[in-house]
Every structure is written in structure tokens, then in C-alpha cells.
Amino acid sequence: MKYEAVIGMEVHAQLSTKSKIFCRCGAEIVDREPNTLVCPVCLGMPGVLPTINRRAIEFSFMTALALECQVQEGSIWFDRKSYFYPDLPKSYQISQYSSVIGRDGYLVLEFNGTRKKIGIADVHVEEDTARLYHREDGGDRYALVDFNRSGVPLIEVVSKPDIRSPEEAKRYLQELRKLLRYIDVSTGDLEAGSFRCEANISLRPRAAETMGNRVEIKNMNTFMAVEHALRSEIDRQTAILEAGGTVHQQTVGWREEWGRTEPQRAKEEAHDYRYFPEPDLPPFVVTQAWIEELRSGLPELPGAKRDRFMSQYELPSYDAFLLTEDPALADYFEECARLYPRTKTLSNWITGELFRLLKLTGEEIGALKVKPTQLAELLRMGDEGRINISTAKAVFEEMFETGGSAEHIIAESDLIQISDVDELDAIVAQVLSENPEAVGDYLEGKTEVLRFLVGQVMKVTRGKANPEVVNRLLTDRLKATN
């Protein structure tokens, strides 16, 4: 713990517009044939002129406002960023540098039981690059280029170097992606490449004010990869500093299969990109009235919803955190809560049984067959003693698979709970007579055998017996035997 990590994140998220940012080509590129969503503009042909997609600008401002950035009215323009990569058809990217959508915002994290603000340096919009596919055929290595992605609108969110651990970095990314999904400007899909990130990290002696030389880490495709890559880089830089060496400013790539980072190139500075105002696009004018219109259209954000769930529904912070991870899930819980007032029981079912089945099947909450009215009905039947907990779970699995109602499934399968004392007492007597060894163990003080006897009663009743009544009857008969 001699050194402190100083981490800043750069996140690129594709905006969910129907068309690209500077042309009319479609921007919904997932599962499309390569090089089919292209035109002379996004292919960078000579003499073409870009035009600005208004919806992409609106989504960018919505993001900046949701991140509490300072957003000013007046003229905003694009800049030309020059660099020469095979996935950049024009050999420059239309981005923003001297003029951006928003500055000096923040994102609040819930981490290790405390809240922390991570500063947002700026939010800006730009065009995406093409995509390279590296291939190897025998001894030949080559790259293929798909220009479908070229020109898809990107929002870039640059954090301040306020993050101090790999775990905190991962939590920041999860919270940022959640926010983008809540305001419905990006899918945040890591697998599809619509949410990508780089990390800038340096080490410094604890309590030091000056920064160390920063290293940029690329090629991190999962939240877990971000955490592992940062840990690896911390170890690498620590070893260099402990040996009296110097950490050089550079860009490295994370190699998952090796479990370490690999140097790629020297890290560029801003002047290397030769920014200047984009001559093919006029500035666009932002009015205060337009900003306020966008602000008023923002939904309840994740942090505010989490706080409300804790106060309105009297849920612990952990439950509120899980239930607000996805806006569709939060809406589902609230609809259920309007029908079933025992919100902690409801939360336990959703974060327990429902999460288990969603994970098992890979289904999304939006495709869930169990309607809020049906879940509320099932839970009320449990409260009324008509079914026990094990039966309720079995019924819920059937509801999840078929979409049928609890009432119908229970009636069809004859699953109504048996609570009649006389009926259960006869079964208890039968079970005790058939298990004399277990009875003897109980009388000798091995009280844990009671669970076995309860299980035998449940087996006879096909899980329909009321466990509370069974426990009481067994205990009474065993005491009488003693």
C-alpha cells in the first residue's frame, strides 16, 4: 500500500439514433452484413459534405444534463482530429475538443457503504470509426474492414482522475451504463461494442500531490476485464517504481489470455492530433429554452430512484440497488408493489426466485411472462396459507415457463396446502410409526432429526402440508412419547 492509484476513465457509448451522425445511413448495425450501411459520406469520399443529426445532439445534451454538467447556451462546433489508422476512412475524425457539450459534472457512486462523487471532466459527441477484423489463414495474417460502424454517433464521457481502485473503476462503469440506459440514449451493450472504455492510470506515493506518468489501457471488453487489467497494471507499475525505474507514458493493451497488459505505442498528447474547427460543418446554436426542454424530459435517474425505493418502500439499500439496476425491472417492481403491499417479501421474491430463473434461462425482464397481477396473486395465496413456500416456488417456475395463473396451476395440479389438523395428525402418526429409529434419536436429544421427520410428512403429502402445523404436531407427539 505504499503507492496510490490515480485512475480516470474514458467511455465511448454508441447513441441509439436511427441514422448516423453526419449522413442518412442506418445506425442500427448489429447483425448486419459488412459494408451494407454505407454511403460516400461515411466512406470518406472526396468532395462530400456532412450534415448534423439533431437527435444525436439531443441525446448528448441529455447525457450531460443527467451527469450534472455545466451546459451553456450559445454556439457549439465540431473539431477535426487528425490521425492515421486503417479504420478511419478520412484519416481524420470529426469530434469535439475546444467546444464540448458539457463540462464539470459528476456521477455519484454507492461503494463500500459510502457515497462518492466521481467528477466528469467533459461530455462530447463524435463519429465512430470503422471496425477491423484481424484474421489468420495458414501463415498469412491480414485485416478486414467493415465500414458499417463508421459514422455511428458516439458520446464520450471523460471522468476526472478521482477513482482510486480497480473495484471503484468497475462500479463507476456500471453506474454510468445504468444512467445511459435510464435516459434511453444508448443500449450500453458491451458485447455488441456499443459501450467501450479505456482507463488512464498512474501511481504516486501516498499523500503525494503530483501525478505520476499515466498509462492508457485499451482492449477491455467486460467490467471484469477492466478490474483485472487495472490490477495487473498496478502490479506492473509498482514493480517498476520499487526497482527505481520510471513508468513511461504509453498506451497498452489488455491481453486476457495472458492476464497482463502489453505495450502498443507511445501515448499521444492533444497537440499530436492537430485539432482545428471542422470547416465542413457550421456551428450549431444552443438556446436556454431548448436546454430546459431537454432537462424537463429526463426521467427519474437511478440514484434518485434508489433513494425513493428505500424511503417509499422501506427497503434496505442492497435491495434498492438491485431493483433499480434496470429501468424495466424497477417498473416491474413498482407495478407489483401497487398490487401487493408487503414490499420486502416482494423484493425477496424478485431478487431471489425471479433473478434465479432469469439467469438460468437468459431471458430479459421485458420478455417476462409472469405479469405483476399474477405474481401478486401468488404471494397473496402464500399469505393466506393456501400454499406453502416450497409449493409457491414450484408454481412460480411453472408460471415463468407458461405464463399461466397461480390459481389455475394450483387447481390443475391439486397443490392447495393441507392445514387441517386432523388430516395432518393422522399422517404425522403414520410417519412416526414408520420411523422408530428417528423417534429414538430424537428422544436421545438429537433434535435435528425433526427436520427429517418433517421431510417425510412433506413427502407423503407431495409437499402440500403446512410446515408450521406439521412441526407443531410432530413436536407434541414426540413430547408425549417421551
Q: Provide the succession of SSEs.
A: EHEEEEEEEEHEEHEEEEHHHHHHHHHHHH
**Oligomer status:** single chain
The number of E-state strands comes to 15
What proportion of the residues form beta strands (DSSP E)? Answer: 15-25%
Largest sheet: 8 strands, mixed
By secondary-structure content and strand pairing, the structural class works out as: alpha+beta
Per DSSP, the total helix count is: 15
Count up the domains: 3
Tell me the overall shape. elongated
Overall helicity: 25-40%
Widest sheet: strand ordering = 5-6-9-1-10-11-12-13
Explain the overall architecture.
The model has no long low-confidence stretch (mean pLDDT 91). The chain has an 8-stranded mixed sheet. The chain has a 3-stranded antiparallel sheet with strand order 4-3-14, with no helix packed on it. A two-stranded antiparallel sheet has the order 2-15. Strand 12 (250-255) and strand 13 form a beta hairpin. The chain has helices at residues 54-66, 166-182, 223-242, 288-296, 302-312, 317-323, 327-339, 343-361, 372-383, 389-402, 406-413, 421-434, 436-443, 449-460, 467-481, and strands at residues 3-14, 74-76, 79-82, 92-95, 102-111, 114-127, 131-137, 140-146, 153-159, 195-205, 215-220, 250-255, 260-266, 276-277, 284-286. It has 482 residues and is of the alpha+beta class. 34% of the residues are buried. The protein folds into 3 domains: 3-290, no CATH class; 299-413, no CATH class; 421-481, Arc Repressor Mutant, subunit A (Orthogonal Bundle), CATH 1.10.10.410. Helix 2 packs antiparallel against helix 3 (223-242), helix 13 (436-443) runs antiparallel to helix 14 (449-460) and helix 14 (449-460) packs across helix 15 (467-481).
